[in-house]
Amino acid sequence: MKHIARKRFGQHFLTDRLIIEGIVEAIAPLPGQPMVEIGPGLAALTKPLVERLGHLTVIELDRDLARQLRSHPQLTVVESDVLRVDFRQLAEQVRLAAPETASVGVHKLRVVGNLPYNISTPILFHLLDAVEVIEDQHFMLQKEVIDRMVAAPSTSDYGRLSVMLQWRYAMENVLYVPPQSFDPPPRVDSAIVRMVPHAEPAALDVKLLSELVRVAFSQRRKLLRHTLGQWLEQHAFAGEFDVKRRAEEVPVAEYLALTQQVQADAARLEKTGIL
Fold this sequence. Notes:
Elements: E1 13-14, H1 17-27, E2 35-38, H2 46-53, E3 56-60, H3 63-69, E4 75-79, H4 87-97, E5 109-114, H5 120-128, E6 134-142, H6 143-149, H7 160-166, E7 169-177, E8 182-183, E9 190-197, H8 206-216, H9 228-234, H10 252-272
Parallel strand pairs: 2-3, 2-5, 3-4, 5-6
Antiparallel strand pairs: 1-8, 6-9, 7-9
Helix pairs in contact: 8-10
């Protein structure tokens, strides 16, 4: 019985064999590597991955698809909403289930998947919370989202998503995927992004960075003195920062340095009893 794509799950099943081969080559899986696939669907990508890996853990919300996937002995099926999955715990479970992974030199999870486009950004931020246990990520996403993820400063695509993810990952758009590669075809272009966590990211309070960047881009057409400038005054910022720019003109490194300065100022004031 053919599985009918369900709109509520944002299902679009990959069917293009050449694209599938291109994705597998980009991922370059090796035998024994601990890997998790999000949203395996009809297993178009799952099958070639598990052939190379030997075993694969998959996360699938659709109970009918999860039942079908359980018939494959080389798959461990986690039937769940991916946003409810604790990836730190999952990494430990995968490691304990396959201790031989240490022999291939990988102690962290590799994560891949065709992410539901309607919740792709929440998934990316959910995984950001577990980035310490992740080796790399390869995701199929709406091309427009990937353009924002990898965007450079002073471009229209550069924004909060760019800053938050570039702080923690080196990213690149590795493959274009046209709508006709899916059944049913989505109404948007897709692409594959590679995300590799930085070995030594800037140490900072991620919640503070998130708030700072959200304020900065809240009115991106205005100069920062109208948004971030006022926010900095409220946080007793004692350093120097050029607010005569728009949010999109500020490089990622400056946002990171500013967050660290605000954090240091707050700690100093708290120590002196002012805050």
